[in-house]
Design a protein that fits this description.
This protein has 270 residues and is α+β, with helices and mostly antiparallel strands. It folds into two domains: 115 residues, 3-Layer(aba) Sandwich (L-fuculose-1-phosphate Aldolase); 134 residues, Class II aldolase/adducin N-terminal domain (L-fuculose-1-phosphate Aldolase), CATH 3.40.225.10. The chain is built from eleven helices and nine strands. The protein has a nine-stranded mixed beta sheet, sandwiched between helices. Strand 8 and strand 9 form a beta hairpin. Helix 5 runs parallel beside helix 9, helix 6 packs across helix 10 and helix 7 crosses helix 10. The longest helix is centred in the C-terminal third of the chain and has 21 residues. The chain is elongated and about 60 Å long. The protein binds Dihydroxyacetone and zinc ion.
């Protein structure tokens, strides 16, 4: 086996992508995931040579220059990624001037990175400034969360509170709440800037009528965050059209946050 495929975090990355497909979140070529590799992983598993230079559509922020990422392919299907990683993912290093990606491995048959590369690089830069341990940026189309954005007011406080009230885990997993963007054209610099701006405050940003962006220190954590928001959205979907008799009130949410030593988004709870 090629060395890069022996890297444990690459193995997890491929498994999670496969799992996301099986959850029905990533139809056709939907979704894209990028993961920063540690200097030790780069040293041990990544071929040093550049096999191709791919121009970046933006000048990448200084904080991501010289860093190496695994990232999914434009037009690639999550369904096929684990079975054919060499074609469907690439391992790139951002050049020192932030203008080029040096491809070390993958994107076989002249492929390139996701069209959402703007949002990925900008979100990595933002999250790294907030949390130097952040490694993963994940975009996907979870069915219930996406459907919910057709049905509820697109208000960060209202949506966060409604998701928190569904189940105990919600406020534990996303005490800062969820960021929400209105519908915007994807694959553009504008949505990348808007998402990264939200990521200053939130690790998860809902793209209304499209999907979600999540981030985390590991692939498991980013996935777990989105999975929890999606589960809460699924509960909300089941409740729509019904009269809610019981949910977790402010007192309960405060008790959960106190118990776990968490600070919920300021101003959301009475
Ligand atoms: O990569 O999900 O937002 C396909 C998409 C675009
Ligand atoms: Zn998408």
């Amino acid at each position: 086996m090629e060395k890069i495929l022996e890297c444990p975090s690459i193995g997890q990355y491929l498994s999670i992508i496969d799992n996301m497909y099986r959850l029905g979140w990533d139809e056709r070529n939907g979704g894209n995931v990028s993961m920063l590799l540690s200097p030790e992983e780069v040293e041990t598993y990544v071929p040093k040579e550049t096999i191709r230079e791919i121009p970046l559509p933006i000048v990448a922020d200084e904080i991501v220059r010289g860093k190496t990422f695994a990232i999914t392919r434009t037009g690639g299907y999550f369904r096929n990624t684990k079975g054919d990683p060499r074609k469907n993912i690439g391992v790139i290093t951002i050049s020192d001037d932030g203008k080029i990606a040096h491809l070390h491995w993958g994107f076989e048959d002249n492929g390139s990175f996701t069209s959402e590369v703007y949002a990925h690089l900008m979100c990595h830069a933002t999250r790294l400034k907030v949390n130097p341990k952040n490694r993963v940026v994940m975009h996907t189309h979870p069915t219930n969360l996406l459907t919910l954005t057709h049905l509820v007011k697109l208000d960060e406080k209202e949506l966060t509170l409604a998701l928190w009230r569904t189940m105990t885990e919600s406020i534990v997993v996303f005490p800062e709440g969820v960021g929400v963007l209105p519908w915007m054209l994807c694959g553009t610099n504008e949505i990348g800037v808007a998402t990264a701006e939200k990521m200053k405050e939130y690790r998860v940003v809902v793209w209304s009528l499209h999907g979600v962006y999540g981030s985390g220190e590991t692939i498991d954590e980013a996935f777990g965050l989105i999975e929890t928001v999606e589960k809460a959205a699924q509960i909300m979907m089941g409740e729509l059209g019904h009269k809610i008799v019981n949910d977790i009130d402010d007192e309960g949410l405060k008790a959960i946050a106190d118990h776990f030593g968490l600070v919920p988004h300021p101003g959301y709870l009475k």
